[in-house]
Hints:
Elements: H1 2-5, E1 13-17, E2 20-27, E3 32-34, E4 42-48, E5 50-56, E6 62-69, E7 73-74, E8 88-91, E9 95-101, H2 102-111, H3 113-139, H4 142-153, E10 163-165, H5 171-178, H6 182-194, E11 198-200, E12 205-208, H7 212-216
Antiparallel strand pairs: 1-2, 2-9, 3-8, 4-7, 4-9, 5-6, 5-8, 10-12, 11-12
Amino acid sequence: MAERNRPSAPKADPIEWGGVRAERLTYDSGATIFSQGQPATTVIYIQTGSVRLSVVSHAGKEAVIAVLNAGEFFGEGCLAGQSVRTATAKAMSECSVLRIRRQEITRKLHAEERFADSFVSHILKRNIRMEEDLIDQLFNSTEKRLARTLLLLAQYGKSEGPRRALPKVSQEVLAEMVGTTRTRVNFFMNKFRKLGFIEYDANAVKVNHSLVGVVLAD
């Protein structure tokens, strides 16, 4: 009976993408794209939506290590000899991704210098951001860490207009990303709303760019 209720895997549609053979898949919000410990044989490119990467320790504690948006790659560890996935990737909203086999990406990197430069630049920028996340965790207060996380989710500096709706994300997930409790997240979310930095209801959270003032404050 449990097998009947298990959601079926999304259909993979073969396509050609910039001279690369790939498969397009669409995932519902909350769906698992790949799991920690599974074989690592493909690189994933996000066309639409957002994805979160998380890891689980031997003790069973989960930590969110990154939130990625449209236009970003992940799973590239397989290009450096990684045999299994070191993290779990889940869709934070309905999203469309391209799944590209390791051999195809390797061929593309060797054949096209412009693509290789762009790909390496993307990986470096993401690694810098993850280092900044670690520094943020070590040295900043919970309030500043939450404000920075909300701004990153809202793609501060990339989107137009004073406000941007976040992908649907629970306070439990925000707590994992910030490294605190849901109670503390709820306290500061209410504070940010009263100060006009964010707006939220049951359906969405909108971040005002003025929230950056919390991050920059001494």
